[in-house]
Amino acid sequence: MKILYTAAHGGFARESVPLGGGAAVFEMLRATWPDVEPIVPGRATGRELVGYSEMEYAAFCRRFEAESTAAILRHEPNECVVLVNDISEGPDFARLAKAGFRLFTIFHVDVVAYVAAIYGRGWVAPETLVGWHRRLGSFCPDILQLVFQKQLDCVRHSVACIVPSPEMRDVIHRCYGSAVRVDVLPWGAPPATHTSERVPAEDRITLLTLSRISPEKNQHVLLEALLAWEQQGNLPRLRLRLCGEPAFMKGRAYAENLKNLASRLRQVEVEFPGHVTGQAKADQFAEADLYVFPSSHESYGLTLMEAFQAGLPALTLDHAGAKSLMRAEFGRMASADSFLPALQELVRDRARLFEMGRAAQGFALANPFSATAERLRNLLLA
Domain 205-365: what homologous superfamily? Predict the structure, then answer.
């Protein structure tokens, strides 16, 4: 049985652009499953993709929907299974199911929950938005259909939805009912293709963030906490390395906002190393004392697991990804209000940070990505 793997953010690995966790999982599964047949975009480059406006990205979604659907339909349904890496960018779920294809969809992001959290600022629950769409769907513009109708089609026509955390499963069931099959497969720690011996600076504490620069990644929460700490006084010597590049909608404007906030810090050294990969990423982990993961909305947290694997403890905000991974012995999971006190508690005890990092590393090594990849393959081919 052949596995067809369709991924809108797949095939751009050589470009080294900040496409996110979905692209990373695609590349890791391709490396793990050498016999998989990938279906990836044939026109846009990764660099173009991360620079699209909302309307440009919506047009890309529709193009890849048509391309991937046509590519799948060239196969016989009884000779393959389809793994879908996307929702809004996914193929025509209804058409493929009607043609007899078995579809499994990975929820790297619950698109409805993302819209509720980021654009709705958490004021409206995802299930409420789904209810509104059921009543008003025919009046929605296409960009909203890519959010609501595509996700509805996905859960209706997929054999199973694959999610990395129990919290995501619970949201899907609240939105679409408990009859929807949802399999929880946490991704685990990515393979460590590059390593570097830990060499934290002795004269300062180094904080590290590593993600694309985008509003939902919430790097401003850390900068604002550091500004508040400067006003309080009694800072230890701190350095912040804020790794990443602007990507997707509103990324560039948000990056300017972060640089303006950083320029107001007088006692904290702030560096913007850009998008780091390979050995450069391993070196960043090796020189850090604490990984800070302030995202407001994360389905899992591959970089968090990478930090654990490198022996770093973490400070996170409370979201689905952190809930599935964080333990008290690895660091702290904080609310927006408790973020600064949690940061102060952690950095004031460097020896404890080291012990937390060792515990986090043990957890990551016990949960490798390869084990999840094998479970997923068995699910697809059962």
Answer: Glycogen Phosphorylase B; (3.40.50.2000)
